Structure formats: structure tokens, C-alpha cells
Amino acid sequence: MKDMPSIDREKCQACGLCVSICNCGALVMSGNNVKVMDASNCGWCTLCELVCPYGAISCPFEIVVERDPGPE
């Protein structure tokens, strides 16, 4: 299973910005809380982490892009 966005409950103010920016449906509002609904839907874009004004979301994965070495 791949890593998922992690939500710090102490920092989260349930403003919903992360849910509204998540095009994958990985995050949802559940009552007055944000929760990871389906981590397998996460597209690893990290937009939820970037948009959170409270720093409550961390994405514990790293996106690595390999360069094409070109023709040999």
C-alpha cells in the first residue's frame, strides 16, 4: 500500500480547502473532520499539503523524476 497524506488533528481546523482541491477523492469531510477516505485514490500531487493554511497535512512520499539519458 502506498503512503497517504497524513493529517495532524492538532493543527487541522477542518476548513475544507484540502478536500476542495483534491481531484482524486482521497480526502473527504466527515462531520467536523477531514479524513483520508481512500488512500489508493491519492494521485500524489501534494496539492492538499500546499493549500493547507495551517500546515496540518504532510505527504510522506517523495516524487522522483528520472531524466531520460537520451540515445545511447
Keywords:
72 residues, alpha+beta, Alpha-Beta Plaits, two-stranded antiparallel ribbon, single chain, two-stranded antiparallel sheet
List the helices and strands and how they pair.
Elements (H helix, E strand, L loop, with lengths): L5 E2 L9 H5 L5 E4 L2 E4 L10 H5 L5 E2 L14
Describe this protein's structure.
- By secondary structure, the chain is α+β, with helices and mostly antiparallel strands.
- The protein has one domain: 2-Layer Sandwich (Alpha-Beta Plaits).
- It has helices at 17-21, 47-51, and strands at 6-7, 27-30, 33-36, 57-58.
- A two-stranded antiparallel sheet has the order 1-4. A two-stranded antiparallel sheet has the order 2-3.
- It is elongated.
- The chain starts with 5 loop residues before the first strand and ends in a 14-residue tail after the last strand.
Mean pLDDT: 89
Quickly give the structural class.
Answer: alpha+beta
What is the distance, rounded to the nearest whole angstrom, between the alpha carbons of the first and last residues? 36 Å
Largest sheet: 2 strands, antiparallel
Report the CATH topology name.
Alpha-Beta Plaits
In spatial order, strands of the major sheet run 1-4
Count of distinct strands: 4
Order of helices and strands: EHEEHE
Strand content: 15-25%
Poorly predicted residue ranges: none
* Helix fraction bin: 10-25%
CATH class: Alpha Beta
CA-atom Rg in angstroms:
14 Å
Number of discrete domains: 1
CATH architecture: 2-Layer Sandwich
Q: Per the principal axes of the C-alpha atoms, what is the gross shape? A: elongated
Q: What's the helix count?
A: 2
